[in-house]
Amino acid sequence: MSDHLPLNENIVFLVAKAHQKTQGVLKGHLQPLGITPMQCLFLESLWGEDGLSVGDIGRRIALDTATLAGILDRLVNGGWVLRESDPADGRVARVYLTEKAREVIPQLCSAVHRTNDALLHGFSLEEKVLCKRFLRCIKG
């Protein structure tokens, strides 16, 4: 057996390339809104439950607070979210969607759905289910 693993058999390579493709497709759908894929993910975490702490958002989207800080700053500066101190604990920052963000939620949802549809085009229902299952297993 050879030590060399061909790229088309290398899961690290395949997942990395799949990630590049998904981000590129989503970026194209979000570009007219002026939102990046990471910003969309951040906003999506607030859609059902506004006023989460930065730590809660990080846990939901599996990002550390250092990474979230830059995303949050850009969203605040862009007028997409408000950052406020928690009245019960001033050390905790809570994040709220602005009206500007609420107005584009349907478009963000549409962009995510179109991206999923584009990426899974040509897959059978069974293949779609298996693909998601495999990705969840890899994600852990």
Automatic annotation (TrEMBL):
Keyword Transcription regulation attached: yes
Keywords assigned by UniProt, alphabetized: DNA-binding, Transcription, Transcription regulation
Single Gene Ontology MF annotation: DNA binding
Pfam families per record: MarR_2
Entries under PROSITE patterns matching the protein: HTH_MARR_1 (PS01117), HTH_MARR_2 (PS50995)
Protein origin, superkingdom: Bacteria
Gene3D superfamilies for the chain: Winged helix-like DNA-binding domain superfamily/Winged helix DNA-binding domain
Domain HTH marR-type: 8-140
Annotated InterPro entries: HTH_MarR-typ, Tscrpt_reg_MarR-type_CS, WH-like_DNA-bd_sf, WH_DNA-bd_sf
SUPFAM superfamilies: Winged helix' DNA-binding domain (SSF46785)
SMART domains reported for this sequence: HTH_MARR (SM00347)
Name of the protein in question: Transcriptional regulator, MarR family
Organism for this UniProt entry: Citrifermentans bremense
